[in-house]
Each structure stands twice: as C-alpha cells, then as structure tokens.
Design brief:
The structure is a single chain. It contains five helices and no strands. By secondary structure, the protein is an all-alpha fold. The chain has two domains: 52 residues, no CATH class; 40 residues, no CATH class. α1 packs antiparallel against α2. The mean pLDDT is 81.
Length: 109
C-alpha cells in the first residue's frame, strides 16, 4: 500500500481485526463454548490496547472441544501447514535476503 504497510501485517495493532471478531462471535455462540465466550469478553476489555491473533481463537476452540493440549498443538500445526507449503513453493530458489522486509529494516527503500 502507499503507506508501506502490507495487508495482514500490523504487529503493533491495538485492535482485533473485524474478520477475527466475526469468527469469534460465531464460534462463541455455539453451545458449550465457555473458553470462547471468556476470550470474547477479554477481547472487549482490552480493545484499543491489544490485538487478537487467530491462534488465540483456535486455542479456545480446541479447549472447548476437549482436545488435549498436545493434540491441539499438533492439529493447529497441521492446519497451518498448507499455507507454509504454499509460501515455500512460491519462494523456492530465492534467497531469504530477497524478502522485502530486509530492505525496509535496513533502510534500503
């Protein structure tokens, strides 16, 4: 974008993205979604001070489903793997120094 911030990359965000808030609201409406409801309340309490990551929603959902912590971690990693594979395939044959954030961090813009 014109301001140098790419969509989806705002590590200092103080607000939860609307898409994640929508997903959280829908999941929290399910019966037995105690951890998701608690997370929804926490997000409302800290809005403006802290953003929300999808991993938090996934962790609360896994807890509500009764998935043991170790299995939940493995399942989360498996679900994220297709995206990692797509990025790896896209970057095959390129140096890690070709990523644009190195130029931005080093002031070579």
């Amino acid at each position: 974008s014109e301001d140098g911030i790419w969509p989806g990359f705002d590590p200092a965000s103080a607000h939860a993205p609307s898409g994640l808030l929508t997903a959280l609201a829908r999941l929290a409406a399910a019966p037995g979604a105690n951890a998701l409801v608690r997370l929804q309340g926490l997000v409302g309490a800290v809005d403006g001070e802290q953003g929300l990551a999808s991993v938090g929603i996934a962790a609360a959902a896994m807890h509500d489903l009764g998935v043991p912590a170790g299995q939940a971690e493995g399942l989360f990693l498996l679900l994220r793997l297709p995206g990692a594979l797509a990025h790896a395939d896209e970057q095959q044959g390129r140096s890690y120094r070709d990523f644009p954030f190195f130029a931005l961090a080093e002031g070579d813009t």
